[in-house]
Design a protein that fits this description.
- The protein is α/β, with parallel strands linked by helices.
- It has 15 helices and 12 strands.
- The strands form 3 sheets. The chain has an 8-stranded parallel beta sheet. The chain has a two-stranded antiparallel ribbon with strand order 1-12.
- The chain binds flavin mononucleotide.
- Flavin mononucleotide binds next to α15.
């Protein structure tokens, strides 16, 4: 019975990729058949075990925020300007004293090995090649040592490293010694939400560190020892981080500290007051608390809370140059993406990641050219209206 379900899933994935059928007939889609980010998603889905796909794509509980992250873009309308000289388009920005060639960053993503082995280093190399800023989950030292890593990268922490002064010092020392140009502290994952696709699939989270095991002839996976489950009452053995932890972290390093997972104006104001260097408006790709709205809906409030004191970045559902354009118009300094480059990596490895970055960058440049805004600073608030 499971084999049949598996077969149906594979067929559905193939059917979803139907627009790429012409390429499939030629013996498989190639990189240049990919016209946009979602084309990569279609190919990625055909390459993954369904439970890995669900881990990549899924969100928390009813996935209302997952839907909102995309749907909210459709309520924002671009107001293009006529007859501006757009013969040269410049996507460059300055972020924490460093020049970035384009305002698109690579978000952290754990469990990359269930999409592509050694995924973290694959992404680091792609970031190096395309000059994208990479927020890494860690473990990219060999790529950095080989001179193939990103020039600009931030080390992620989700708070475990900030438990006490000792662990915090060790974390900071390692980040600084490894050559990180910033620290990204994700604050929306003090607990892992019920991601019900994973629960239904009996996903063993550890598989995403070592690669999803092969199914047997009947299509069965090995018995999971510790599958994701619902109904485990939340508690932690140690106090979870607070604003005081950020204050202490600030006192230990001069590296920029960026708080990821902010959805309120008052939290952005607090981040600025406490000495954080920037915030990322994020709902963790809608993988954590559900019913928090699309991130682009929260952006104006957070920008107002930051009051120009610190830059506001954003992520969540960005798939198009126009999505990025809208966020920049609403006051974001830059946009981060996760699933887009994960689709690229799953479909075509390092080249796929590079191409996804290239496509998003080109779409944004094209949109800027068409909207009469040849530079990032020219994408001002009046460039969009809300329906
Ligand atoms: C497979 C996967 C793993 C993720 N792992 C992490 C993580 O370890 N730490 C973190 O802060 N965010 C993590 N995220 C969230 C992303 O950093 C980001 O906030 C979000 O996915 C952006 O939305 P997008 O995927 O629609 O671009 C993960 C997202 C995905 C899809």
């Amino acid at each position: 019975m499971f084999t049949r379900r598996h077969a149906i899933h594979q067929f559905m994935a193939w059917a979803a990729a139907a627009p790429l059928a012409r390429a499939q007939q030629r013996g498989g889609a190639t990189l240049l058949d990919m016209a946009n980010v979602m084309d990569f998603a279609k190919v990625a889905k055909t390459k993954l075990d369904p439970i890995a796909w669900d881990y990549l794509e899924g969100g928390g509980e009813d996935e209302v925020s997952l839907h909102d992250n995309r749907a909210a873009f459709n309520r924002i309308v671009i107001r293009p300007k006529a007859l501006v000289d757009v013969h040269q388009i410049d996507l460059g920005i300055q972020l924490f004293g460093k020049k970035l060639e384009f305002p698109i960053l690579l978000d952290p993503a754990g469990g990359k090995n269930c999409f592509f082995m050694d995924g973290e280093n694959v992404v680091a190399r792609a970031a190096g090649k395309t000059k994208a800023l990479h927020i890494t989950n860690g473990g990219i030292q060999k790529t950095l040592a080989a001179g193939q890593g990103p020039a600009n990268w931030w080390q992620l922490t989700t708070g475990g490293d900030l438990r006490n002064t000792q662990t915090m010092k060790a974390f900071v020392k390692k980040a600084e010694t490894d050559g990180a140009s910033g620290i990204c502290f994700t604050v929306d994952i003090m607990y892992v939400s019920h991601r019900e696709r994973n629960i239904h699939n009996g996903l063993e989270r550890g598989w995403c560190e070592i690669g999803i095991p092969k199914r047997d002839a009947e299509g069965r996976l090995p018995e999971a020892k510790n599958p994701e489950r619902a109904g485990v009452f939340p508690s932690r053995p140690f106090p979870t981080p607070t604003w005081n932890s950020v204050k202490e972290l600030r006192s230990l390093t001069t590296l920029p500290i960026v708080i990821k997972g902010i959805l309120r104006g008052d939290d952005a104001a607090m981040a600025a007051e406490i000495g954080a260097s920037g915030v990322i408006v994020s709902n963790h790709g809608a993988r954590q608390l559900d019913h928090v709205g699309g991130t682009i809906e929260a952006l104006p409030e957070v920008v107002a809370g930051a009051a120009g004191k610190i830059p506001v970045l954003i992520d969540g559902g960005f798939r198009r140059g126009t999505d990025i354009f809208k966020a920049l118009a609403l006051g974001a300094k830059a946009v981060c993406v996760a699933r887009p480059y994960l689709y690229g990596m799953t479909a075509f490895g390092q080249e796929g990641v590079e191409r996804v970055i290239e496509l998003l960058r080109t779409e944004l440049a094209l949109d800027m050219g068409l909207a009469g805004t040849p530079t990032i600073p020219s994408i001002t608030r009046d460039m969009v209206r809300t329906r």
